[in-house]
Design a protein that fits this description.
- By secondary structure, the protein is mainly β.
- Strand 7 and strand 8 (89-91) form a beta hairpin.
- The protein folds into three domains: 4-40, no CATH class; 46-238, Kelch-type beta propeller (Neuraminidase), CATH 2.120.10; 320-594, Kelch-type beta propeller (Neuraminidase, 6 Propeller).
- It has one helix and 58 strands.
- 54% of the residues are buried.
């Protein structure tokens, strides 16, 4: 028998630690620490990511894993668009015509949605067509009435070349295909079967299209060459509503009805089972267009779940919140700062009689009591690190400022110029910004002050006066504030404002308006890279989490415990959510956020 050296021209290396990058894919080595042979192996794996904003039946979807889109809804208003950036979903432009069960394709900046049904019964085929430029939808050439349909399939990777096929007009069921050339519609080859196939399902291009399963429940797979449909290898299971992405010769099919977690890769002639979905659902939608089937986004009818598929030597672990050790004393709206493994929380509201001076430190696992603040207070703001922390303001309205050295709090002789509470603060112990809040009792303010480690100075005001806002950033030249409410609390804000040390400019709006939310004020978080989580939306405590990239907010995994008047520490990839309130009362809960991580897929080799 030939040796490994004879086959590959080199010997098996002996190492004490495994390699950490996917360049080792296909290599074999002996790990003397584990006393085993190992290799990096490519595999197909689905992992969950941030939830969508709506649980709709789309009127079109497309794009790539890092720039996907979907539009429409099966409940009013039915004009929404969502965009995916590889991490989370955000709102896009509003369609002019409400619809569901439509057909669409294209990229996030050049897309089309065609036909479909009104969002409320009875279902009927619409002729309306719209094109999307990444910002706004505009009306385009209508589908001819004989070709109008809903629950049809679609193929196409660019907005100027695609087709819709099958579906229904309630009645009749259709087997027709109609092609789009960027300006007009013309008839194409008939599909081998007629009937609904599931809201835009299909992948590939106009001249090399692919559809899996259906109509209804079936295992038929068909290819389109720009003129004719032909059947090919059957799908491994009889399903309807199969999600599909990729090309005619490199595609993936997943999910479908009856509900399943199965997924299969297709090379143009053969299906091969690959990694299973985490979610079993009866309606699946794939986004990947003509991009490789190895990088796919999957969404599902009737819920907001999103999963990504990757075929590589890298294992992706989705970002998530996880419960950790709780505060020793339940409270809300205290001063917080630091990192995920070294944080502080001081003061806050403990319920009647109100404010407290208690201070605690977090080591990444649990909280321990430290030396108290000198001034008990609630709705106090914090900034800085565990070794160099800052607490300012509070209720009743005060400008009292204290600095923390990791052991004790020291009152500073210079208080804020305007004593207040319910504001937002971010930055470092010697370069912090306090914005908004209320003074002397209930008046909402837009006042802004900076702290330089010695004294406070008045700066340019916020554009929007508000209270119960959140702030994030690491220095007084790098701060963002977001959310909050007016004085009665009846209006919740989505406004985001960014500060450069002199002026405030408007940023992207939060997806969900809320007050009493938390942010990531320390660690590596900056105004272009921060989290917003929790809060009160006017009806309920919220668990929603959003991430900001300096331009727009997009969804992130939700908190495990919904709450408001919550505080934060750490940064956008290693954050903390601390305390707060939600029925039945004030919380001790602490949750850690870990952003998406990657690692190489190392397997132990065994003899068989």
């Amino acid at each position: 028998m030939a040796t490994y050296r004879e086959l590959h021209g080199k010997a098996v290396k002996t190492v004490t630690t495994n390699p950490s990058d996917d360049a080792a894919e296909g290599q074999i080595w002996f790990n003397s620490t584990d006393n085993t042979f190992k290799s990096v192996v490519a595999s197909g794996v689905w992992h969950s990511t941030a939830a969508r904003l709506f649980s709709d039946a789309p009127a079109g979807q497309g794009g790539t894993q890092n720039a996907a889109w979907t539009c429409g809804d099966d409940s009013p208003p039915g004009t929404n668009t969502e965009e995916y950036n590889g991490t989370g979903w955000s709102t896009g432009g509003t369609m002019n015509t409400a619809r569901r069960y439509g057909q669409g394709w294209g990229t996030q900046t050049a897309a089309i949605t065609a036909s479909g049904s009104p969002p409320s019964p009875p279902n009927t085929g619409m002729t309306a067509v719209e094109e999307y430029d990444g910002t706004a939808w505009t009306a385009s050439t209508s589908v001819p009435s004989p070709y109008a349909r809903y629950l049809g399939g679609s193929i196409g990777s660019v907005s100027t070349a695609g087709a819709i096929f099958c579906g229904s007009q309630n009645p009749p069921n259709l087997d027709t295909t109609v092609e789009w050339n960027g300006s007009s519609w013309t008839g194409g080859g008939n599909y081998p079967f007629s009937g609904p196939v599931g809201a835009g399902a299909g992948c590939g291009t106009l001249t090399a299209g692919l559809f899996m399963g259906g109509p209804g429940v079936g295992n038929v797979v068909c290819k389109y060459d720009g003129s004719n449909w032909t059947t090919t290898t059957n799908y491994p299971a009889s399903k309807g509503g199969i999600g599909a992405a990729g090309t005619q010769t490199a595609a993936i099919g997943f999910g479908g009805s009856p509900a399943t977690t199965n997924a299969f890769l297709f090379d143009g002639s053969t299906f091969t089972a690959t990694g299973s979905l985490g979610l079993s659902n009866g309606g699946s939608y794939g986004m990947g267009g003509s991009s490789p089937s190895t990088t796919t986004v999957g969404t599902f009818s009737g819920n907001t779940s999103t999963e990504e598929f990757n075929q590589s030597a890298t294992v992706i672990t989705a970002g998530a919140w996880a419960s950790s050790g709780g505060l020793n004393t339940a409270r809300l709206a205290g001063a917080s700062g630091g990192t995920q493994t070294a944080a502080f929380y001081a003061g806050g509201r403990v319920g009647p009689p109100g404010g407290t001076a208690l201070s605690e430190e977090y080591n990444g696992t649990s909280w321990t009591e430290g030396n108290n603040l000198n001034t008990p207070r609630q709705y106090v703001e914090g900034a800085g690190t565990e070794a160099a922390g800052l607490a300012a303001g509070g209720y009743p309205a005060t400008g009292a400022t204290e600095e923390y050295n990791g052991t004790s709090w020291a009152s500073q002789p210079n208080s804020m110029g305007t004593g207040r509470a319910f504001g937002g603060m971010a930055g470092a112990q010697d370069s912090a910004v306090y914005a908004g809040g209320t003074y002397p009792s209930t008046a909402v303010t837009a006042f802004v002050e900076e702290y330089n480690g010695t004294s406070w100075s008045e700066q340019n005001d916020l554009s929007q006066a508000r209270k119960y806002l959140a702030a994030a950033g690491t220095a007084d030249t790098n701060v963002v504030v977001f959310g909050g409410s007016d004085q009665p609390g009846s209006t919740k804000y989505t406004n985001t404002e960014e500060y450069d040390g002199t002026n405030w400019t408007n940023g992207g709006a939060l997806i969900t308006a809320r007050q009493g939310l938390g942010g990531s004020p320390g660690g590596p978080g900056t105004k272009a890279d921060t989290l917003a989580f929790g809060g009160y939306d006017g009806s309920n405590a919220s668990a929603a989490t959003e991430g900001y990239d300096g331009t727009s907010w997009s969804t992130r995994p939700s908190l495990g415990t919904a709450r408001y008047d919550i505080r934060g520490a750490g940064g956008p990839t290693a954050g903390l959510a601390i305390g707060g309130e939600a029925p039945p009362g004030i919380q001790t809960a602490t949750e850690e956020f870990t952003g998406e991580t990657t690692s190489v897929n190392i397997e132990t080799l065994t003899q068989s």
